[in-house]
Design goal:
The chain is of the alpha/beta class. The chain has one domain: 3-Layer(aba) Sandwich (Rossmann fold), CATH 3.40.50.1820. Helices cover 32% and strands 18% of the residues. The protein contains eight helices and 13 strands. The protein has helices spanning 2-19, 23-26, 104-116, 135-159, 171-182, 255-272, 285-289, 333-353; strands at residues 36-39, 42-45, 56-61, 68-70, 90-94, 120-125, 164-169, 189-193, 216-221, 236-240, 277-282, 299-302, 312-316. The chain has an eleven-stranded mixed beta sheet with strand order 4-3-6-5-7-8-9-10-13-11-12, sandwiched between helices. Strand 7 (164-169), helix 5 and strand 8 (189-193) form a beta-alpha-beta unit. Helix 3 packs parallel to helix 6 (255-272) and helix 4 crosses helix 5 (171-182). It starts with a helix and ends in an 8-residue tail after the last helix. The structure holds 2-acetamido-2-deoxy-beta-D-glucopyranose (5 copies). One 2-acetamido-2-deoxy-beta-D-glucopyranose (NAG) binds next to loops. Residues 1-19 form the signal peptide. Pfam families: Lipase. InterPro entries: AB_hydrolase_fold, Lipase, Lipase_N, TAG_lipase.
Length: 361
């Protein structure tokens, strides 16, 4: 109940805030526009203006492993002075709340990409606007950060025709959605890694990640109802191990954070995995929750190599520790059902015992 009440309050704010977050509603006076409102230790960035914000971008390539800063605004960038290779695809990794670009699980994705071949990998750092315990401020700032990122996307498009793929973890998923919409043209692909739920559960589609935000949106759910959304958010949505609590996480200090962080961990492994993560289709997550998705259907692969023509909801199971991928399923469905019966009881216990856990990321 506590969670529900708290979400409701936040959602009320977000709905109001997002609806009125254009600069004209905040005021046209130049001393307010584009500045930061400090409430306690929380930074609410006013307006969508990116100028003088502390949102930064760092480029990594197979030759540039230390990372170098990309400086960009609406009219120019230093991309041509960096190691950015215009003939390669660009992967942009976006962290979430209470985090920064050094987040281990995102750097794990970067490492796997460089093992897989030649790419530009860019990490965005918006940690000054994502600080804990200021969750509502972080949610509010997503739009501005998305606007900053759109300038980078457009700068890349000025010099290169190669694909840009945005990968957002948690709140970063919604930053990706804003960025794609602010850009001159939507990006080809957005991957949502356990897109954040709190603050977005009842938000309109234009304020959160959904399938309209890129040509192809794939989503991995690992902590639905808690730190992640249970809602279908892309063209294809994978619910891993039931999508709520991940195996092996019950033994961890923070079962929710552990489950939430599995989304980028599974994604990283998917890049070079030989067996791969395979899932079977289910008509909806609710069908699954009420136990109707036991039968097998067509299999499809999750993660980096997802089939862009596939649509719908897929269920995936994994091992409880690395290597997580189990390959195509055969006789594993019976085990899956058993595992999930146990898990639903564990989830009920967590909800009863620790309803504030969501906020202790
Ligand atoms: C604020 O600026 C916008 C765009 O520059 C303009 O259309 C609008 O009329 C302005 N509003 C006020 C109250 O000055
Ligand atoms: C963008 O950055 C360049 C180089 O730093 C600067 O000369 C230019 O004035 C900036 N433009 C805007 C609109 O801020
Ligand atoms: C860019 O990448 C292409 C393809 O891997 C490679 O042939 C080329 O040498 C690279 N350019 C630079 C400047 O590194
Ligand atoms: C931006 O960075 C500067 C220098 O590190 C810092 O003084 C300032 O507080 C930061 N702004 C915000 C909104 O955190
Ligand atoms: C599996 O895929 C085939 C070919 O795409 C399709 O005809 C069939 O209906 C699918 N089966 C199920 C159970 O989804």
């Amino acid at each position: 109940m506590l969670i529900v009440a708290y979400l409701f309050v936040i959602n009320m704010c977000i709905t109001l805030l997002c609806a009125s977050s254009d600069s004209s509603a905040i005021g046209n006076s130049s001393n307010v526009k584009g500045t930061t409102l400090n409430i306690g230790i929380c930074n609410f960035r006013l307006g969508r203006n990116c100028g003088q914000s502390n949102v930064t971008f760092y480029l990594y390539t197979n030759n540039q492993v230390e990372g170098e800063q990309i400086v960009v605004n609406k009219s120019s960038s230093n991309l041509l002075q960096t190691a950015f290779n215009v003939s390669l695809e660009t992967k942009i990794l976006i962290h979430g709340y209470n985090s920064d670009m050094f987040l281990g699980v995102l750097n794990g994705i970067k490492t796997e990409y460089f093992k897989s071949g030649k790419l530009n990998v860019i990490l965005i750092d918006w940690s000054d606007y994502a600080k804990g315990p200021c969750y509502p401020a972080a949610v509010w700032n997503c739009r501005m950060v998305g606007n900053c990122l759109s300038q980078l996307i457009d700068a890349i498009r000025c010099i290169s025709t190669s694909n840009v793929h945005l990968l957002g973890f948690s709140l970063g998923s919604h930053v990706a959605a804003f960025a794609s919409n602010y850009a001159s043209k939507k990006v080809k692909r957005i991957t949502g890694l356990d897109p954040a739920l709190p603050g977005f559960a009842t938000a309109a589609n234009e304020n959160k990640l959904d399938s309209s935000d890129a040509d192809f949106v794939d989503v991995i759910h690992t902590n639905a109802f808690m730190q992640g959304t249970p809602l279908q958010s892309g063209h294809i949505d994978f619910f891993v191990n039931g999508g709520i609590i991940q195996p092996g996480c019950m033994q961890e200090g923070n079962v929710l954070a552990c489950s939430h962080h599995r989304a980028p961990i599974y994604y990283a492994e998917s890049i070079n995995s030989v067996p791969g993560f395979w899932g079977w289709s289910c008509s909806s997550f609710w069908e699954y929750l009420i136990g109707r998705c036991w039968k097998s259907g067509n299999q499809t692969i999750m993660g980096e190599h997802t089939d862009r023509n596939m649509r719908g909801i897929f269920l995936v199971i994994t091992n409880s520790q690395a290597e997580y991928a189990m390959g195509p399923y055969s006789n594993t469905i019976r085990n899956f059902i058993k595992m999930n019966n146990d898990k639903l009881q564990q989830i009920a216990q967590i909800l009863l015992k620790d309803s504030t856990a969501v906020w202790l990321i």
